[in-house]
Amino acid sequence: MHCKKAVRLASGCAIIAAMLVLPHPSRADFQGERALEFTRKVVAFGPRPAGSPALRRARRYILSQLRALDCSVEEDRFTAATPRGAVKMTNIIARFPGTSGRAVVVSGHYDTKPMPGIRFVGANDGGSSAGLLLEMARVLSGVPRIHDVYLVWFDGEEAIGPWSETDGIYGSRHLADRWESEKKLEGIEALINVDMIGDRDLGIVQDAGSSRPLRLLVWKVAASLGYGKYFLNSLNAIEDDHMPFVRKGIPALDLIDFDYGPNHSWWHTDKDTMDKLSAQSLEVVGKVLLEVLRQLEKSG
Asked: How far apart are CA 125 and CA 154, in angstroms?
């Protein structure tokens, strides 16, 4: 990622009491093992920096899975100005249509940070979000919806060099600007970004920069499903792919486990490998997201 800049602010924010989970038609339950296998396939392409042949191969794989489903698929191509010059990048957008004219976005990134001299395959950091979104797509396919659901795989989340305001989150900055110019932001009910959510020792922090009502809803849903222990009370400030949308007034939230390995020692190292991930962690996040989508449709 970037410096996935995290600053601890406080602890608190008690989890709200459990809520009633309403039934909803579903093509299939979210399966953590499937999400883990999707992740494994993406990670098998190796290090995937923006503009690399390996990322292009990963993109072709993701697109092949999506084109077999009941959704529209877009390759959102753009050229980013980076410290190493112009780099061609591509966001992947899958739309599952609803009837309300409103939309909910679930996003994550599929690239890895350039790490010269290190074989950084980004199993958790880039792989887990890509795999989880593919399993979300499988579950959403063919299910009648109230709101449109957009699943977005961001390119260029990672900074080329040290994280800065201009180096990092290229894909989300591009899409937020593009959707603003196209007047699409006005129809977005919520955006939830996922990142580093495959850790066996899952602990998702509360992001201080995210939409508070959306954050409270997610933590409430997690508690209602019996997953409250994975959604922590610690409050942090996280700079990630949700922030370009937050800055444009969209209710947006980042779900991230920013404590990966002893003293966060596996982040951006060659230790970020598949053996550190858990199907259970992916399933927890996937099931919470699906229930949040249902609650947003109910309230919308």
From this structure: 13
Q: Per the structure block, which two tokens stand in for 14?
A: 């008690």
Task: State the residue for tokens 């922090």.
Answer: 205
Contacts of 164 (CB under 8 A, 6+ apart): none
Q: Tell me how far apart the alpha carbons of residues 171 and 164 are, in angstroms, rounded to a whole number.
A: 15
Residue 278, Cβ density class (10 Å: 0-12 exposed, 13-18 middle, ≥19 buried): middle
pLDDT confidence of residue 201: 97
CA dihedral (73, 74, 80, 86) in degrees, to 10, reads 100
Instruction: Please name the residue that has the structure tokens 């009502």.
Output: 213
pTM: 0.91
* Cβ neighbourhood burial of 22 (10 Å; 0-12, 13-18, 19+): exposed
Q: Residue 90 forms beta bridges with which residues? A: 77
What pLDDT score does 299 carry? Answer: 81
Residue type, 65: Q
Residue 187, amino acid: G
- Do 168 and 228 meet the contact criterion of CB atoms below 8 Å apart? no
* Cα(237)–Cα(244) distance, integer angstroms: 14
